[in-house]
Amino acid sequence: MSFHDLRQFLERLRARGQLLEIDAPIDPELESTALSLRALRAQGPALLMHNATGSTHALLGNLFGHRSRIELAMGDRPVASLRELGELLAAIKEPRWPSSLRGALATWPELAQLAHVASKREHDAPFNEEVLEGADIDLRRLPIQRCWPEDVDRLITFALVITRGTRQERQNVAIYRQQPIARNRVIMRWLAHRGGAQDHASWQAAHPDRPFPVLVAIGADPATMLAAVAPVPDTLSEYEFAGLLRGARTRLWHSDLTGLDAPAGAEILLEGFIHPGDTALEGPFGDHTGYYNVQAPFPVLTVERMRLRRNAIYHGSYMGRAPFDEPSVLSMALNDIFVPILRRVFPEIVDFYLPPEACSYRVAVVSIRKQYAGHARRVMLGVWSTCASSRTPSS
Fold it and tell me: Is 287 a catalytic residue?
């Protein structure tokens, strides 16, 4: 089954006993994080908190806190495992022309997956059921979490940020944490080497006096959320990769305000702009290192339009000390995708592992078939280069 929105996925989790619905009041201030952390440590279900204190919207936590839910999010797609999906990505990244008719026929099931790559445009979307503009926009109506005691404020933790720069046609879809500082303003924390920041920099260079358009989708379909945190090759957009994950084309809705496309199944959509020179000091917030980040200036997104599905579900998460947070679980699962991509470049690699205890990016363990002096150093430098060129998630 292909899930085109979050609610379809939650229905499947409910049927599998993988969703715990909580009617008791739960405070997004620290309490929701404590419950989600406890559920993850116990390898428990996703949590749908219907009565989030201070909000009329339900709060969803621990959605990807177990590998089984990550695998279920891909539905009944033809690729049987994450490792096999990595093989498909490697073939797309470095295609090999079949040398015979038999080879072409053997390759056809792999190539048939590409039928799901092209996205499908929808004329309407459920999040158009409520549209707010101007003074009616108020992010405080959402059950945005404050995750840790020394966090400076509340934090949007699992929203998809959609951008497009001037150097590529593709739209970048990634997850960056966002600190609300007013009813319609959030600080966008993206590091300089990430896709969103690079899109912003290229836009500033080409259009220094024009605001930079941004979409933020909260509660998207599970395949698009997974695509946003996967090591997608630069030749493939996250929307295209999401089609491969779910085995069905991604459904998109076009924002006339920003010129960008949003996942049509999202619960909440924010449309806005980063104006030239508009920055603010962000943080500190607890991070997956187990420590609080230092403060630093980042761009500010001004939301000009807010769209919500009726009784919209707010999807949140948290960053905690690895391996006890959702980013760690996602990284351990998606590690299987990255191995075949590396092997296509370096066939001598036997296996590759990013320990969650090292935040899944600060240390890599690589085993190789060593053939000459200096071989390990060559692979090490190559892995650095390959990882740096992949569009991977940022906290």
Answer: yes
